[in-house]
Amino acid sequence: PAWAENVRATADIPEVSQDDMAWADAVIFGSPTRYGNVTAQLKQFIDTLGGMWQAGQLADKVYSGFTSSATAHGGQESTLLALYNTIHHFGGILVTPGYTDPTKFVDGNPYGT
């Protein structure tokens, strides 16, 4: 089946780790929208970062996010806002496109892509 081929094709792509979060100056989180929120898999990874958060290692980094859904009103904005709540707790510097580009007036989402 197609999903099995995708598993084989992406087997060598490394997953993000806490070490990646430690060295990165900027982090862009991406997740499909699930019921107006990020996926359980992304939330599970974020939940592993508690020690880094407590040590202040996630603060003062630049963060942004992107998401997708199957429909135009599938919860993209609420997904990004939920993700950004976490970034605020990290003490991160949130960078979003706002309405700085004319294309943002077309898709109507100043929170991310």
From TrEMBL:
Protein known as: NAD(P)H dehydrogenase
GO cellular component assignments: membrane
Transmembrane segments: none
PROSITE patterns reported in the protein's UniProt record: FLAVODOXIN_LIKE
Alphabetical list of Pfam families matching this protein: FMN_red
Ranges where the Flavodoxin-like domain occurs: 1-113
SUPFAM superfamilies: Flavoproteins
UniProt superkingdom: Bacteria
InterPro entries given in the database record: Flavodoxin/NO_synth, Flavoprotein-like_sf, FMN_Rdtase-like_dom
MF terms (GO), sorted A to Z: FMN binding; NAD(P)H dehydrogenase (quinone) activity
PANTHER family noted in UniProt: FLAVODOXIN-RELATED PROTEIN WRBA-RELATED, FLAVOPROTEIN-LIKE PROTEIN YCP4-RELATED
